[in-house]
Amino acid sequence: MAKLIIVDDEKPIRAALRDILEYEGYEVDEAKDGEEGLDMILNGSYDVALCDIKMPKLNGLEVLAKVSEAEKSTQVVMVSAFGNVENAVEATKRGAFDFITKPPDLNRLLITVRNAIERAKLVQETKTLKKRIYKLNEIVGESEPIKKVKDTINRVAATEARVLVTGANGSGKEMVAKQIHEKGSRANQPLVEVNCAAIPSELIESELFGHEKGAFTGASARRVGKFEQADGGTLFLDEIGDMSLSAQAKVLRALQENKITRVGGDKEIKVNVRVIAATNKDLRQEIINGNFREDLFHRLSVIMINVPPLAERKVDIPLLADKFLHDIGNEYGAPPKELTPDAMTYLQSLPWTGNVRELRNVIERLVIMCGDTITLEDVKLYA
Questions:
Q1: CA pair distance 242, 250, nearest whole angstrom
Q2: Secondary structure (DSSP) of 144-176
Q3: Is 254 in contact with 248 (CB distance < 8 Å)?
Q4: Closest CA relative to residue 338, chosen from 380, 310, 366
Q5: Within 10 Å of residue 383's Cβ, how many Cβ atoms?
Q6: Of 154 and 58, the one with more pLDDT
Q7: C-alpha distances in angstroms, 356 versus 150, 169, 235, 325?
Q8: Of 308, 304, 306, which Cα lies nearest the Cα of 164?
Q9: Cα–Cα distance between 207 and 276 in angstroms, integer?
Q10: Which DSSP symbol is given to 306?
Q11: What is the pLDDT of residues 63-104, one digit of tens each?
């Protein structure tokens, strides 16, 4: 059942609206002024608030502003006898779902409430989904090396600084990039990922910057590149050490001027993108070998984060294994399985050359192949 609150200093108005809404099957609470209403909204769980504008203590626009600041999923519908354009525009600017004049048209009121409830549900579902994704991208571990990584992420996330993430394959570089994005001011904007090692060198420029129709054989239509797709958000250039020198030059220009040009085009396109790059290579050695531009390296490495291999933080294996057991159990719709203490100890003794990715694969294999309790013999057989 949807839950609503009526915030109005006129008792007859509250009573009339309550009768209408309860008849429609909604659960309804009342607040006699803006201050009481705000307190109930912030500490309660309401789908919709019907809020008057002219009230003692806090007016309706002040209540609306504070609800928006708190990022509640509650949708605020302003209901006021002062139905002028100025009030309606101001309410919309502050995040009101709708503006209805008193006395309200019954049909419009009910339609607005139904639509606001649907919007509230969507907002709540989005928040829940984001929390799940955030938990999936959580960097797990309490070892000193991983604590240092987490601390750096927390420091750099709120800035616009470019970050270069280094580390072996499977160590969790992508997780670091996602955490920086999700904890930063661009979290509600797109995170666009490009695996530079997986794209042929002759196509990387088209992938990054897009192309115009007829730019080359097979370019049958205009294509928007990753820089444009990430506009306002974050572009994650994974395995940037594998990028061709010609593409590196264009990326450098894009970082310097915040402009790109599509392949086959001559129009400059402004982009506002935060770039996070990652590599498993020693870029300083690649510079010496002539495979990577030194000026691009310095543009990318304002902040450097090195993700340690799993072999250097084996103390984190029990925490990682427990997380993977729960994650995989959720994926399969089953309760998480357990590892016996000697099985866990054996996991900690293995070399883990494939790092965290290899550990997750092993845990998934054990979940599929073993019973509710995973023993030492199971681990020796399937790890």
A1: 15
A2: HHHHHHHHHHHHHHTS---EEEE--TTSSHHHH
A3: no
A4: 366
A5: 17
A6: 154
A7: 16, 9, 23, 14
A8: 304
A9: 17
A10: E
A11: 998 988 887 889 999 888 876 667 777 787 778 899 888 888
Q: 337: which DSSP letter?
A: P
Q: What 3-state class would DSSP assign to 348?
A: helix
Give me the pLDDT at residue 337, please. Answer: 95
Q: Is 50 helix (H, G, I), strand (E, B) or coil?
A: strand
Which pair of structure tokens corresponds to residue 32?
């006699």
What is d(CA 302, CA 247) in angstroms, rounded to the nearest whole number? Answer: 20
Q: Helix or strand or coil: residue 209? A: helix
Q: What is the mean pLDDT of residues 177-196?
A: 93
Q: Left if phi > 0, otherwise alpha if psi is -120 to 50, otherwise beta: which for 57?
A: left
Give, in order, the Cα–Cα distances in Å from 141 to each of 68, 133, 225, 321, 337: 35, 18, 36, 11, 20
Query: Strand, coil or helix: what is 21?
Result: helix
| Length in residues, the chain | 383
pTM: 0.67
Task: State the pLDDT confidence band at 134, using cuts at 50, 70 and 90.
Answer: very low
Taking CB atoms within 8 Å and a gap of at least 24, the contacts of 134-137 are 134/182, 136/327, 137/175, 137/178, 137/179, 137/182
Amino acid (one-letter) located at 312: E
CB atoms within 10 A of CB 333: 6
Nearest Cα neighbor of 223 from 234, 214, 211, 233 is: 211
Token pair listed for 178: 């996602």
Neighbour count for residue 130 (Cβ, 10 Å): 13
133: which residues sit within 8 A by CB, 6+ positions away?
A: 182
The rounded distance, in Å, linking the Cα atoms of 335 and 343 is: 19
Give the C-alpha separation, 329 to 335, whole Å.
6
Q: Which tens digits make up the pLDDT trace of 313-324?
A: 999 999 999 999
Place of tokens 């799940």: 132
Which of 82-91, 118-127, 208-217 shows the highest mean pLDDT? 208-217
